[in-house]
Structure formats: C-alpha cells, structure tokens
Design a protein that fits this description.
Layout: H1 2-22, H2 47-75, H3 78-102, H4 106-122, H5 140-146, E1 154-157, E2 161-164, H6 165-177, H7 179-186, H8 192-206, H9 209-218, H10 222-238
Antiparallel strand pairs: 1-2
Helix pairs in contact: 1-6, 2-8, 3-4, 3-8, 5-6
C-alpha cells in the first residue's frame, strides 16, 4: 500500500507539472470531441538542444538499434514477430482501458477489456489476436489532450525520442497507473519494465526499417520532417484516427505510445 500511495502522489505531481508547463497556451476548440489539438506551427523553443539529442539518438540507432532490428527481421520468422507484437499489445490493453475510461470512451474501454481477457485466455497469453477487436493505443498524453491541456513545448528525449511535453508527462503517469507494472512489482519482477521497454523498442524499430529510411532519404531536413510527422501522428491518435495524417514509424527505444497511433 505504501508503494502504491507514493506512486499515485508522484503521478499527481507530474500531472500538476504538466498543467503548469502547458497552461500558458490556450488550445483551440474543435467541433465534437473537445481536445487540445496542435496549432499550425510546432512549438519548439528548445530546438538547438533538441537537435543535439536528435543527433545523439540517431547515432545510437545507427550503431545499435537498427542493426539489431535488421538482424531480428532477418532471423526471426514473420509469424513469430507478429506474436511478439500481439503479446506486447495485449500487455498494454489495461492502460488503454484506463485511459479510455478517463476520456469517457466506455465502448472503447469495453473493447479493451474484451480483447485482454479473450487474448489472454484463448490466445495463449496474448500471443495470438483471437479477439480481433483492433483496439487503438490510448495513453495519458491523449487523455490530457481530451481534458483540454495544451501540448507544451516539443522535446527530443535522450534515448526515448520525440515527445511533446504533454506526452512526456503522460508517459510518466502511464507507468505508475499501469496495472501490469503493479503486478510485476508484486511478483518481484523489478526489471520487467526495462525488459518490456527494450522488447517493445526492438519490435517497433523492426516494423519501421524501410519507412524511416525513406523519410530520411527524401527529407531536406530530417529533424524537421520527424518533428512534423510525429506531431501529425499524435494528432491522429488524439482524434482517434479522424485526421488524415502520415503515419510516422516509431523512433523510440521504449514503449509506450507512442506505435504512435493516436495521442500526444
């Protein structure tokens, strides 16, 4: 109980920090779902620092993650890689459910619950997508957007990649809210989040090898292209796929989100 209490306090503190950072900007209003969608231009006041960390992440990717991902694709058969993706998605269903509830999307939360229990018990722990419900990613950054909190400055986080401030703080909150992480800690699996993040990063990078190479090849400014496409994808996630944005493959070494499908 003590660890849960401290985790919740940390999550609340992080949320308060987000409000303070993002409160200076007023999000535009939209018809229907009230979300804090992005303004026309990316707010990137830390661009020199962001470009530096972008270059660092690019070097790490070139030296380590990309070669490992290429080896993974070359050695591991597609059905096995698909099962890894299914398993990771199934592990994320509880946090998707929580965020859908927080957003008032109860039908989507029901799909998350159905997918999790069906695939866990009938899909061999989630290795097979028996439910076929095609649930979308939901994270706390998206939830903050639905609540009207602005996105804040654009950030490039060392190792983790592109974020908005809202998405970055939301990712911290998701870690402490995720029931799977609580279950791992209760069973003395303290390294589980690190292992999960590493496998998820490898899985995402392996599915974006050709796409990222193409973006780099055709971009005059690779940093600006990634920044723009990341923001479009977050917008698409927040709007549950209602916007027509180009899908940007993940450049993260971690999880969370950002299969960048719906939020910020």
């Amino acid at each position: 109980m003590r660890s849960i209490s401290s985790s919740l306090k940390f999550g609340l503190a992080a949320s308060a920090l987000l409000v303070l950072v993002g409160g200076c900007a007023t999000p535009p209003q939209t018809d229907g779902k009230a979300v804090a969608v992005m303004n026309d231009e990316v707010y990137d006041p830390l661009e020199p620092m962001n470009r530096y960390f972008f270059d660092v992440n690019y070097a790490l990717d070139a030296l380590f993650l990309k070669p490992v991902a290429e080896m993974y694709v070359g050695v591991v058969p597609t059905p096995v890689r698909d099962s890894v993706t299914n398993f990771l998605t199934n592990l994320s269903q509880p946090i998707y459910l929580i965020n859908n509830v927080l957003q008032g999307e109860l039908n989507r939360a029901g799909d998350n619950m159905g997918a999790f229990f069906t695939n866990t018990f009938l899909g061999v722990g989630g290795l097979f997508d028996v439910a076929q419900l095609n649930t979308q990613e939901e994270d706390l950054g998206q939830t903050f957007a639905v609540w009207g909190i602005s996105e804040g400055p654009y950030l490039v986080v060392p190792v983790l990649g592109p974020r908005t401030t809202r998405a970055a703080v939301g990712g911290v909150g998701d870690y402490f809210l995720d029931p799977v992480n609580y279950a791992a800690r209760e069973n003395d699996m303290d390294n589980f989040p690190i292992v999960r993040a590493a496998i998820n990063g490898l899985d995402q990078r392996s599915r974006s090898l050709g796409a990222l190479d193409e973006i780099e090849r055709t971009s005059i400014d690779f940093y600006a292209a990634v920044r723009s496409l990341y923001r479009q994808n977050r917008n698409n996630l927040i709007l549950n796929g209602a916007s027509n944005s180009t899908q940007l493959p993940s450049m993260n070494f971690d999880d969370d989100d950002d299969n960048m499908a719906k939020k910020n």
